[in-house]
Write a structure and sequence with these properties.
Layout lengths: L1 H17 L26 H13 L4 E6 L4 E2 L2 E2 L6 H6 L5 E5 L16 H13 L3 E6 L17 H5 L6 H16 L11 E5 L17 H18 L5 E7 L5 H5 L10 E8 L4 H22 L2 E9 L7 H10 L6 E4 L4 E2 L5 E2 L10 H9 L3 E2 L1 H5 L7
Parallel strand pairs: 1-4, 1-10, 1-13, 4-5, 5-6, 6-7, 7-8, 8-9, 9-10
Antiparallel strand pairs: 2-3, 11-12
The site of beta-D-mannopyranose has 8 residues, from loops.
Length: 386
């Protein structure tokens, strides 16, 4: 009798596993792999939607982004609704970059003087228009109390668990978590954010840079940070960007990569330094090709996390250089750095044209190409919807 029951169960099991449909896995249906979800398995519905839509948008074009776009422009500050991109094109960018440096030391304004309470409002405005939010953090050196550019040896080791500054670092993350938790839509929903800590990590100008910690220390720091925000602080509206500076090879790019289970967006920062457009285009083209192949293989979202040609001194740079470099690549977005304007030392800092700037007309052409997506193009795509 026992044997018969056993045989019966066996037959039933065989039947179930050979049946396509509700009991058994239908092998012709693609399995929902890690690639379709952000690394936070408890990510909010809108964060999951954004993640999937960013992937979908890879076939539509490159979303144009600008740092601090709504806060100030080349010669204005805090004028409601204003944006240098809008002054030139009549449209807002599709992606908005913001920066948290100095939040950790309880300042009311960030290291570039943007008040954090205003920043929250701007983030909400961008989100309500259907734009994407990404946030960087030039956090001070927790070991010395000096700036992010103070590369004191041993800083990264000091903030890892067991290190003398781990508690301090956690208290800084608490402040970041509180800020991020306060990013709410008009309806009170959490606004999804692409968080990109420790950017340009293969350069050596920040304390988390290449010459100041081992690859393993950086990986540990990245994982600790994600785990603290996600698992301890229970933030579930973040995607995480792994972000190098310009790089030479795939190995170079991945040297400090913390692992597929910690990263959603992969990107790098690149600036044109001299007049040689061709060299810039070639480098951009080559490194984007590497980035895209890594993204495809790892099921990540590729992006140009920061770029620029300071003061854009070439009147046709947008179509003759940048577009040539990114034009045939599938990246989710490209974020231009901030229009800080004239500086007290007589120099100027800006990366997108303001109205009378010499590349403004060319920027309009760039705006009009099908490849480049701005706010009007993404609002209709409903990036936070299913
Ligand atoms: C740099 C410059 C600085 C700024 C810093 C952090 O590239 O724009 O003026 O303080 O980024 O945003």
């Amino acid at each position: 009798m026992g044997k018969m029951v056993f045989a019966g169960i066996l037959v039933l099991l065989c039947l179930v596993f050979s049946l396509p449909g509700s009991f058994a896995q239908d092998r012709s249906t693609p399995v929902v792999t890690q690639g379709n979800l952000p690394v936070d398995k408890m990510a909010t519905r809108e964060t999951v939607n954004l993640y999937r839509n960013l992937k979908r948008m890879l076939d539509k074009g490159v979303m144009f982004g600008h740092q601090d776009d709504l806060a100030y422009g080349f010669h204005w500050k805090y004028e409601n609704g204003r944006s240098d991109i809008r002054d030139v094109t009549g449209d807002y960018p599709a992606v908005y970059g913001w920066e948290l440096g100095h939040l950790e030391i309880d300042r009311l304004v960030n290291l570039d003087s943007v008040p954090f309470d205003k920043m929250k409002q701007f983030i909400r405005e961008g989100y309500e228009r259907g734009g994407v939010i990404t946030i960087s953090w030039h956090l001070n050196n927790p070991l010395t109390g000096k700036s992010a550019w103070d590369p004191a040896p041993g800083t990264v080791a000091s903030i890892l668990p067991g290190g003398e500054k781990n508690d301090l670092y956690k208290s800084w993350l608490d402040k970041v978590a509180a800020f991020l938790n306060g990013l709410r839509s008009k309806k009170g929903a959490l606004i999804p954010v692409i968080f990109r800590p420790f950017h340009e990590l293969n350069g050596s100008w920040f304390w988390w840079g290449k010459n100041h910690c081992t690859p393993d220390e950086l990986k540990q720091l990245y994982r600790f940070t994600v785990s603290y925000l996600r698992d301890t602080k229970k933030l579930h509206h973040l995607m995480y960007a792994y972000n190098t500076d310009r790089f030479a090879t795939r190995e170079d790019y991945l040297e400090r990569y913390p692992g597929d289970e910690w990263v959603d967006v992969i990107g790098f920062d690149i600036y044109q330094r001299g007049k040689n457009n061709e060299a810039f285009v070639q480098e951009l083209d080559k490194t984007l090709t590497i980035l895209e192949s890594i993204a495809t293989e790892k099921h990540k979202i590729p992006a140009l996390t920061e770029f620029g040609y300071g003061t854009v001194p070439d009147s046709t740079w947008w179509t003759d250089a940048l577009l040539k470099g990114i034009g045939h690549h599938k990246i989710a977005y490209a974020l231009a750095w901030r229009n800080a304007g004239p500086k007290p030392n007589g120099t100027q800092e800006f990366y997108v044209p303001y109205k009378e700037q010499l590349s403004a007309d060319n920027f309009k052409k760039f705006y009009e190409t099908d490849k480049m997506l701005f706010q009007k193009d993404v609002t209709i795509e409903k990036l936070y919807g299913k």
